[in-house]
Amino acid sequence: MHEFRYLLDRFWITREQNKELYFSVKRALPDYRRLINEQLGWNLVVNEAVVKLEKVPPKAMAWMGIEEFQDKLDYCLLCGTLLFLSDLDDGEQFLLSSLTEALEALLAEIHPVDWTRFPHRKALVRALRYAQDIGLLIVYDGVSEGFGSDRTQEVLYENTGLSRHFPVHFGRDITGCQSVEDFEAFSWEGEDAERGQQRIQRVYRQLVLAPALYWSEQNRSDYEYVKNQRAWLGRHLREALGGELQIHQNGAFLVLDDDNRFGPVHPRDAVISDAALLFCAQLRDQITAGVYPRGEDDTVFLTTREYERELAQCRALAGNGWGRRLRELSQEKLAEELTAYMEDWMLLEKREEGVVLCPAVGKWTGRYPARYQNAPAEEDEDEPLEDA
Fold first, then answer.
1. Of residues 313, 291, 311, 314, the one with CA closest to residue 301
2. The CATH number, out of the four listed (3.50.40, 2.80.10, 1.10.760, 1.10.10), of the domain defined by the range 271-387
3. pLDDT tens digits for 110-146?
4. Is the overall model pTM greater than 0.70, yes or no?
5. Which of the residues 10, 180, 182, 302 has an alpha carbon 20 to 30 A from that of 189?
């Protein structure tokens, strides 16, 4: 069922940009429609232009945003662009100046824009680049990036008509939703009779989209479902994605094997990934030795000072093998980058007074081979890690 992976790994598949894959996915619809409709509860958009799986997560996480975007304004400008395109016919051409004028009016009461300001122009460039890459519009004449340095720059675009398929279809009135939390609660509203099905969908969505599913008192019913239905759950996920469902005392993980990897994975062939594995091994050793106590849910709290001390110790023991870029980072920048990476992979949660280490810290660890002597390595000569 590689077609399901393609849908999961992409925002959508358009007939214009990838005709062969578009028809391949359409032919395979019967193979995965039940999984999508019943276990995941997602909407599948299929028409003559696009096949799109609307991947609504059970809970929003920072890494689920658009990677290229840097500011809230980027998203506002993309939404404004979608509204502008919705008033155009398919194939209709328009100028950048027409778009910028419309965006000024559309965002006046939400996030006013001033095109004399360089950050605002760069935000629009990022939004336009994303819209172009995903297929919402086509550049006919000019270069979008030129607007960043010259606000009088003119560009000719064509509307592809795909903008009408971009928004998620919730099937209910969402005008009352004012925050991410509102949307999350909104997704699980319903009668008691629906709660069982919602629990199934919540579990499947978390395992398919996120690195881990952890239990707590708040989601104890999810744990009971995973424990009681582990055979069926593992089978459905294996048939759809490959890999193995691994269940532990306080968490479940869908672990892909080398032949079934797709999309972003951890660990991967990157120095930041190696550093995370080594740091997790350091933290696991300390926790096993009783230096830091574990909570009932297998989480461990470290103050900021304790966390930074452990990172400094890990860097002293193995940091010379991390490659030149990480070696040259200040301790503050290294902590910032590594913490962000580990938080994205649900290895820890950052708090104001410190960090909470998640159970996966004890699962995903690595060490350099015994012969490693912490000698400086060239960027392309890093020692491979061994599983702990």
1. 291
2. 1.10.10
3. 999 999 999 999 999 999 999 999 999 999 999 999 9
4. yes
5. 10
